[in-house]
Fold this sequence. Notes:
The protein contains 12 helices and 9 strands. The protein is α/β, with parallel strands linked by helices. A 6-stranded mixed sheet has the order 1-2-3-4-6-9, with helices on both faces. Strands 5-7-8 form a 3-stranded mixed sheet. It has helices at 31-47, 66-70, 74-92, 109-116, 132-135, 143-151, 153-162, 168-174, 186-198, 202-216, 220-235, 238-248, and strands at 7-12, 15-20, 50-55, 98-102, 105-107, 119-123, 127-129, 165-166, 179-181.
Amino acid sequence: MANQEPISYELDGEIAMIGLRRPEKRNAVSDRVVEALNIAIERAQDEAKAAVIFGEGTHFCAGLDLAEHMQKPLIGAVMGSRRWHRIFDGIERGAIPFAVALQGAVVGGGFELAAACHLRVADETAFFGLPEGQRGIFVGGGGSVRIARLIGAQRMGDMMLTGRTVGPAQMEVWGGVNYVVPTGTALEKAKELARLAAQNAPMSNYAILNALPRIRDMSSEDGLFTESLMSALASATPEANERLRAFLEKRTARLKAPDAE
Length: 261
């Protein structure tokens, strides 16, 4: 297992499948894992229309590899955190949508990685934790921004201060996950969602991934102005014209009411 690549990569049609491969360590994230993940993310952006991140074994990711972290000097810890930021930003504000399949531990840096993805699917075994307070450390993979915006700073603070773990149903209510599915089915659901997103016009997907988070950070007036520009740009592509024509000519399916849940 020591010589095994820490990240797997497979192209399934138009979907890039990116797997965390340290099940014996509950897929803890080391520097080697982060760099291998970066290579996989960049490859996916080049050759896929959407991607799925998943963890091998019974846990998605138990967070930072603390044994490695303890050996870093202060500046090394700072630079390591900034490296995580750049790589995770490549997921959140990249060119293609990322879905993530969650089971078992989604803890610390694992939760931060999940928060960088666009579509989060948790099965019934998943549990979420931020034990940094108990470990004497602080989040360093973007959680103070991404997780706090998903579930609120007070809820995040509660988890960090008390070591509280949260199940998937409650996390869905809080906004930390998009879907909760039966045990063992998160990966299939994530792939299904990725395939749906891959069918969208590339310019629309790019606008959703890159304009929405930036507009969120703007004033209302600046956000509305940016929305107008992005709307015009997305509508001006040949693919948009063809898709709108197909809709008007009733060659595409219309939206339907959701099935009863």
